[in-house]
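MULE transposase domain-containing protein
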Amino acid sequence: MSILPLEVFMVNAFKERSISFNLFLASSSSKSPAVLNFGGAAWVEVKVLPVGGGCCGGWFVIGGTPDNTYKTNKYNARSAYRSSVRGNDTEMQHLMKLLERDQYIHWHRLKDENVVRDIFWCHPDAVKLCNACNLVFLIDSTYKTNKYKFSLLNFVGVTPTGMTFSVDFAYLEGERVNNVVWALEWFRGFFLRHDALPGVIVTDRDLTLMNAMKTVFHECTNLLCRFHIDKNVKAKCKSLIGKKNAWEVESAHWALKKVLQNSLGDLCSVWDAMNNIITLQHTEIKASLETSTHVVGHVFKVTLYKGLLSMVLRYALNQIAAEYERVHYAGMNPSRCGYVMRTMHDLPCACELSKYVLGSIPLDSIHMVWRRLSFSNQGLSEPQVTIKEKMETISKRFEELDVCGKVTLKSKLREIAYHNQNSMYPPPKKVNTKVKRSASSSNQPIPRRIMPMLDQFHLFIHDFIDNIVDVKADDNCGYRAIATLLGMGEDSWSLVCNHLLKELDKWSNDYIKLFGGTYRFEELRRSLLVDGLSMVTMDKWMDITEMGYVIASRYNVILVSLSLQQSMTFFPLRSQSPIDSSVHRIICISHVYGNHFVQVYLKDCCPLPPLALLWSRNCHPQAKQWPTPYISIMHQYRNWMMLKRYYVDITED
């Protein structure tokens, strides 16, 4: 038994009816550990000395009888200790303190002013890991892990050595697409190069997660993990799969559930459990990578492997050694070799190795993933980032504001600088609201909800509108509405501008042709160059008639634009339409009062306005099938418009 170097009393055993405590005194001095055994009828008080820097380190006292009060006293003692550590801080203030202390990357969204809606955090070393090991990721949801009934979205990566690690965690208010898209967008932002995005992302058959994946990671391959297929494969192929590492990706998610244990913890307690498991994972991964550097088998002490030692993972060397045994059989004959090793692992196959029999294997023939022996330095550092210019802009803006504006801006900056002094509150605990309705209430008519700005829509479309949601009117309202409809939050409008700017740059030739020349293309491009602080002029307002093509193509959505003057539907220009139209994502925006954009939520089977004028002539061949499922409802919209056109008011003089 290993003994910690600090003095610690530990409870060693617990049984159902009769409990005996073995208390081990571990000391760094020369005294041997003292073992004290107490009978089942004795009162016990246990004091635990500090054993770490985590949230739960420190003294706490457990006292009680073994018969019926041990669990209660233990729970009360832990709660009292956590309250003493937190002091006068609220739960959210203490959580922000913990995140800042360990330099976690974190974001959150609020609702009803200060109530947390979604929260996302990531360990700083996990960012380096996910960039170094970016081939395969698992995304899954876990439930009943906190007292607020938030769903936990867990992101898990896989190292080349076959080990799994937690990348980040997102507690979401609900399982709606906009919540999941918000978390996936932040996860995508961790990848510092566009060509280093995940190759494969494994999910279960969660339609919300799958639809969000198509929006954010439409370039990646999405594999499904189906339970009945899993059972069938395990039953028939169990003998062919290694027992130790067969299901490590799924077991990583199960390990997290085991650590979180119950559904009564607050956000601080679940963060502490996550932080502990992440620390252990990183320690084990570092140890497995260091093995390749310090441990060299006698098999590899030959000229053939001279250029690979301490440069390539031990697992890859073992694969090459096994493939080298086939050289005498395959030689340089490709038909005998089969290229299996090169195709599956991107390592030299038998016919390649036959060329290096008298020399050594070049390092360039090994894929980069097998050459990453550390995740602390992967060349991921970006150019030096400075905020000097932004701070000067903020200072100038502050001087231009009135007293109320200065107080508001000052409070926002204070929350950024002092996370532990924020005014956020955790969501209220969800309670059972299924109560019996009274007989009188069932007979009362339900008043019709009056939606704002309904007069800005054609009369026939009123019954097909489910809701109209306004956004802040600050000249960026169009991009604010789009950001909210995509699930990123209204304040992420500048992120949308950045995405659209990258879309224009990447497909510049297509959009120059679409917009009729370079001059108009450059105008639209300059309109997206915003910093969020300087005043926005009219030339930077969103022109939905042209920007609609860019939005639909960048986010792979169907964008509906409604107004009294001109309504149209935009489809993606390049992507292939899924066969099942039920997975299509439709978002709707409306231009009202001639100078403002709002969000519109449409009901199912709502008539859609006609196709955008330039779409058919500029879409790629594989995208031609996008409008097919909507031809009938577009025709229905056209018929309604024709009825309106021939409408005559007979009461008019």
